[in-house]
Amino acid sequence: MSLPKTLSGWCMWLFFLWTGLTAFIPLPFAAYVSGLLALGYAVFAALGK
Length: 49
Prior knowledge:
Blueprint (H helix, E strand, L loop, with lengths): L6 H16 L7 H18 L2
Helix pairs in contact: 1-2
């Protein structure tokens, strides 16, 4: 398994890791961070970076 080479790939990895972690450890700002990572993925994927 290799690490992602694009910013959108990193956002996607971090999104799934973050949401998996917050399923077991509830944090008050979890939805905010998840939203930022999802938005980051969408923007960087659309830009092709």
